[in-house]
């Protein structure tokens, strides 16, 4: 079983539970969040071994998040503490789709030393990168860049999710963010993103046009989440849509994180070079679709996952 190291942000999601948006909503529920953290939690829930790499505040919100890390049994060896915790106000419409407003905190201050990176690279591990806040400057971005290069040079499996948020990446920042994402994609073993993210990053109106450009720069496996339709799997010349299950969507927050967490939990459990043919990938993605769909049925990103429930859908 390989470890999975997830680097990026862990924060507080203030979720509007009335489906009235940020302007009219009055009741918000405090939830733990942050895409790389959500991925790490999913991996643990599904029997894997994950570690979160990031910084949380030394305030009460940070103490709350530290308790969640302990509760979820996510490795805390490389977590740093200081400053105030990042807050994300999440607005849900009547369909459960999300919009965000961020109050940025100390997640940007995360600093990995060269010595620590050297220790991480020695492990039999998968390295997962989320870019929601990782390409906005500061020590966190430098740490991601250094760890990514070290993992690439060591031939490690690298997973990348752009985690685009329009409230963080405005029009002025978008060209730089786009180029950084493309650079990471070029050398990643596995790329996961939504249809909207693919079209945005490759400046295409049609998903097929965006994927044609992506396939020119990477040999990695590509997973495109399509919401209720399922996911699209592209490996080499193989291209297919793998359907999801039908559920009543309450909140889509974290569904993509649960999806990629489920993929990584499975990939960490066997030898990819020997066991990941198309049939195996199809099973992996089908399982991950179910995990993502189950996540949509409850408020918040870090929801309970029951293996028996997943098996019933299978």
What would you note in describing this structure?
With 314 residues, the chain is α/β, with parallel strands linked by helices. It is built from twelve helices and 14 strands. The strands form three sheets. An eight-stranded mixed beta sheet has the order 4-1-9-10-11-12-13-14, with helices on both faces. It has a four-stranded mixed beta sheet with strand order 3-2-7-8. A hairpin with a 5-residue loop joins strand 7 (87-92) and strand 8. It is globular and about 50 Å long. It starts with a strand and ends with a helix.
Rounded radius of gyration (Å) = 18 Å
Q: What's the overall geometry? A: globular
- Our estimate of the beta-strand percent is 15-25%
Number of helices: 12
Main sheet summary: 8 strands, mixed
The residue ranges in which pLDDT falls below 50 over 5 or more consecutive positions are: none
- Output the strand order for the largest sheet: 4-1-9-10-11-12-13-14
Q: SSE order in H/E notation?
A: EEHEHEEHEEEHEHEHEHHEEEHHHH
| Total beta strands | 14
Which structural class fits the helix and strand makeup?
alpha/beta
Oligomeric form: single chain
Determine the N-to-C terminus distance: 23 Å
List the helices and strands and how they pair.
Elements: E1 3-7, E2 11-16, H1 21-24, E3 28-33, H2 35-45, E4 49-53, E5 55-56, H3 60-72, E6 80-81, E7 87-92, E8 98-103, H4 114-121, E9 125-130, H5 138-153, E10 157-161, H6 174-186, E11 190-194, H7 195-201, H8 207-217, E12 221-225, E13 231-235, E14 238-242, H9 255-267, H10 272-275, H11 278-295, H12 307-313
Parallel strand pairs: 1-4, 1-9, 2-7, 5-6, 9-10, 10-11, 11-12
Antiparallel strand pairs: 2-3, 7-8, 12-13, 13-14
Helix pairs in contact: 2-9, 4-5, 7-8, 9-11
């Amino acid at each position: 079983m390989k470890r999975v190291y997830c680097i990026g942000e862990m924060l507080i999601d203030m979720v509007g539970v009335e489906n009235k948006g940020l302007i009219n909503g009055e009741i918000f529920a405090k939830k733990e969040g942050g895409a790389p953290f959500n991925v790490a939690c999913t991996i643990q829930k599904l029997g894997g071994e994950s570690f979160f790499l990031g910084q949380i505040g030394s305030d009460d919100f940070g103490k709350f998040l530290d308790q969640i890390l302990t509760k979820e049994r996510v490795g805390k060896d490389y977590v740093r503490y200081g400053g105030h915790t990042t807050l994300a106000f999440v607005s849900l419409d009547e369909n459960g789709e999300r919009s965000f407003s961020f109050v940025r905190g100390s997640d940007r201050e995360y600093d990995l030393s060269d010595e620590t990176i050297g220790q991480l690279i020695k492990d039999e591990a998968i390295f997962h990168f989320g870019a929601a806040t990782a390409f906005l400057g500061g020590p966190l971005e430098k740490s991601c860049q250094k760890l990514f290069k070290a993992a690439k040079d060591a031939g490690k499996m690298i997973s990348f999710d752009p985690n685009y948020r329009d409230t963080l990446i405005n029009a002025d920042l978008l060209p730089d963010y786009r180029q950084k994402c493309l650079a990471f994609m070029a050398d990643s073993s596995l790329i996961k993103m939504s249809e909207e993210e693919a079209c945005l990053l490759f400046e295409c109106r049609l998903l097929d046009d965006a994927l044609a450009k992506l396939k020119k720069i990477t040999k990695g496996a590509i997973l495109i989440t399509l919401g209720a339709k399922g996911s699209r799997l592209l490996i080499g010349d193989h291209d297919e849509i793998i359907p999801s299950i039908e559920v009543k969507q309450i909140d889509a927050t974290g569904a993509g994180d649960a999806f990629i967490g489920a993929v990584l939990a499975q990939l960490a459990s066997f030898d990819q070079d020997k066991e990941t043919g198309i049939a195996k990938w199809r099973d992996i993605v089908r399982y991950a679709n179910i995990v993502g769909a189950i996540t949509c049925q409850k408020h918040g990103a870090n929801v309970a996952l029951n293996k028996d429930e997943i098996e019933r859908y299978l």
